[in-house]
Amino acid sequence: MDRDLTLxxxxxxxxxxEVQNHQGISTVxxxxxxxLLHGFEEALAIEFENLKFISKEEAAVVSEYFSxxxxxxxxxxxxxxxxxxxxxxxxxxxxxxxxxxxxxYLNASDRLNVDVNQFGDFKLTRGNEESG
Length: 132
Description:
The chain is mainly alpha-helical. The chain folds into two domains: about 5-50, no CATH class; about 55-130, Arc Repressor Mutant, subunit A (Orthogonal Bundle), CATH 1.10.10. Helix content is about 60%, strand content about 5%. The chain is built from seven helices and two strands. Strands 1-2 form a two-stranded antiparallel sheet. The chain is elongated.
């Protein structure tokens, strides 16, 4: 990421965290906020080094994989085993962590009614009205 953009976004995030702290919502410590506001590389790296871009194509692979089960209103117990799903996703270049992230995004967007936790335990959902 461009250095000036990183600094600007760091300042914005620092201000947001500052406002959250004033509202009693402490998500980061004061040192981290100070670091963001004043361009400390360590604080900026914490915020930006783990950014992940997930393409439309990757999301489509996950969505298409589940569409036959969703269309057939398959019960969670009738879904393929997690290891089989993970293997399929790996064949399509999607690592397990990304697979779960994509699945959660599609579920939160009401585009898919299947959710999974980090252990590979699946559940069917009815959309956001039940998850909030």
